[in-house]
Amino acid sequence: MAFLKQTILAALATTPSLHQSTNGYYRSRPDLAPPQLNITIPAANPNGSEYVFIAPFPFPMGGTLERPGPYIYRKDGDLVWAGTGYYGDGAGDFHPTTYQGKPVLQAFQGIVDAAHGVGFGQHVLLDQCYQHVVTSTAGNHRISSLHEFNVIRGETALIEVFYTTPANLSAYGGNSSQQWLGNGNFQESTVPLGSTNINSGLSRAEAWDYFHINSLDKNEEGDYLLSSRNTNTIFKISSTDGSIIWRLGGKYPTFSQIGNWTFGDQHDARWQPQLSQPGTEVISFLDNFGDGTTTFNDVSRALVVQINHTDSTATVLRKATAPYNLQALLQGNAQMLSDDRIFVNWGSEGAFTEFGADNEILYHAFIQTGSVSYRGFLSNWTAAPKECPALVALKTASDLVELYVSWNGDTETSTWRFFYVNGQRKTRIGHVDRVSFESSFTWKSPFTLPSSARFVAEAVGANGECLAQTSLTAITANIELPV
After folding, report:
1. InterPro entries this protein is in (predicted)?
2. Partner of 260 at 20 to 30 A CA spacing, among 313, 356, 437, 438?
3. pLDDT below 70 — which residues of the chain?
């Protein structure tokens, strides 16, 4: 009874509060510094179970970003998971997928060369505890590229490999010094040899990247959809003999584009079989608009296009145009969602938008200035991290302590319970609802806190079950966060 009375009195003496981080720093996890989101059009349900998945890195090159890497956010910009330490800094194409029937996270990690638009590394899958599942590497003595890792029906994956080879480029206007070719196999380029230092062909680092694959997809029949940025063309490739079945756009199009529409420097071409009718195929992609030297349109947009094989035409079924006249020179993707929504990551513009069924803007945000994400996604995700929650106890007066707790990557905690530990006795001192990445709780003790004071916190699920507990945490002096 004495213990119960003490617990009730202690609970009455507390003041729960929600702690918002200062400039992305958290008292319980000062090692984390997630890029901030500037939300210009708030979502209607910012705290729902659908999260934003991005992997920001500095852009333009030389930009400052304290902690590049993959991140999960709520739509209100609140952090869910920081991938620092789980993936390397050069991360990209980060989002949930399914592997062998189970939800996993996928991401590229390696070296990103944004100036040349390439990345070299490997692709890593993590489970719902953020533990390693498998690492995918390219075969035939090649290195996987940033551009694509597309898990097909949960078993296999499409990857893109970029490699350079010496070649005689005289037929394309090259001189004796221009002899390095970036691997590409399908069509002449609209990017002339030597048009920029990046494509000069003078060295392996400046190889003539005349084709530039940036997405791969596979349909139920086994044929491939391939986007070639530097030819402004989307190809359908036969899985049986590797031949070109058709071309959309570019210098040698198979189809007439009804309405005289154009596109260029596109990314993320995907099959959309649920929208197809007999005799047609439907695809989606991001029309970047141009590359800074050649301009096809005055603004970037996501397009859904119907290919009609009866009359050899291509018709735009849907167009989601970027707000603020955004012009994404590089990178980006367009994700088709349920309820006919589209989520578009505007690549080098460092922004993303969710569109409704009528292309109305439901949500828009900019990533922290000086950073971009190669691709971005919206998805549901459920996780229970293997790492323990983090707790810090800051003594602000002889009888006052501020407790800050977080659990990086957790999606299931609804309440935090706090306990004072004195020797073998564990006394519950209160609780708070979990409403953000870091929660705080202030406890006014009925006695002067000794230097031996210790605290723990428990993560509690929606059904009242204990999901995890912090380690026993000693009381420390109050500290000021960076500003």
Report:
1. Arylsulfate_ST, ASST-like
2. 356
3. 1-24, 61-63, 113-117, 141, 162-173, 175-211, 479-483
* Whole-structure pTM value: 0.87
Q: What is the CB neighbour count within 10 angstroms for residue 121?
A: 21
Q: Angle CA(72)–CA(76)–CA(82) in degrees, nearest 5?
A: 20
Closest CA to 346 of 297, 263, 287, 295: 287
Residue type for position 250: G
Q: What is the pLDDT of residue 191?
A: 35
CATH superfamily of 2-28+388-477: Immunoglobulins (2.60.40.10)
- In angstroms, how far is the first alpha carbon of the chain from the final one? 47
What local confidence, expressed as pLDDT, does residue 188 receive? 25
pLDDT at site 290: 81
Q: Quote the CA–CA distance of 445 and 306 in Å, as a whole number.
A: 68
Tokens of 165: 């080879």
Q: Determine if residue 324 is left, alpha or beta; phi over 0 gives left, psi from -120 to 50 gives alpha, anything else beta.
A: left
* Cα distances (Å, whole numbers) of residue 374 to 160, 173, 328: 15, 32, 11
Topology adopted by domain 50-162+209-380: Methylamine Dehydrogenase; Chain H (2.130.10)
At 179 the pLDDT is 47
What's the confidence (pLDDT) of residue 424? 84
| Alpha-carbon torsion (191, 195, 197, 200), positive or negative | positive
